[in-house]
Amino acid sequence: MRILLVAPVVWALATEQFVLALILFAVAGISDALDGFLAKHYHWESRLGSILDPIADKLLLVACFATLTWLTLLPLWLLWLVLIRDLLIVSGGLAYHYFVGRFDLTPLWSSKINTALQIALVLLVIVQQQWFHGVSQLVTVGIWLVAASVINSGTEYVLVWGGRAWRQFKQTK
Description:
Elements: H1 2-14, H2 18-41, H3 47-70, H4 76-99, H5 109-130, H6 136-172
Helix pairs in contact: 1-2, 1-3, 2-5, 3-4, 3-5, 4-6, 5-6
C-alpha cells in the first residue's frame, strides 16, 4: 500500500497541497506500523515482506526528499547524501548476496534512527509550509541531524557488512 501511496504523496507535495500530503504520509506511516505489528504478532513474516518493506520506505522517503528539493525546501546536497547512502547499501547488499552469501535484510539501529529522522524532517517541512513558517531554524537543525545520521548509518553499514564479508572470505580460504 505504501508503494501505491508514493505517487499521490509526491503529487500533493508538488502541487503544494501540504495538508493532503500530510494525511497521505500519515496513512503510509500508520500502514507501515500496522503491517509491522501484524507481521510480528501473527508471525506473518516472509522473505518477500522483508524485501518489500524497506523498498517501500525508501521509495516514499526518497520521493519526498526529491520533491521537497525540487520545491527548494530541502538542499540538493542532502538529497544526494541520502541517495548515495541508499545506493551504497543496496549495491553492497547485492554484492554481498552474489559474492559472499545470503544477505539478510535486518536493519541496523543506526538505520532505524536515520529513517525516523528523515520522516521527522519531511513532516517538519510539511508542517512548516502549512502552518508554522517561523520554524526555519528547526528545519535547519533537522537537515543537519539527518546529514549526520546518513553519514553515521552509511558508515556503520560499510563497517558491519564489510567486516562480515571479510570474515566470510577468510573462512573460505
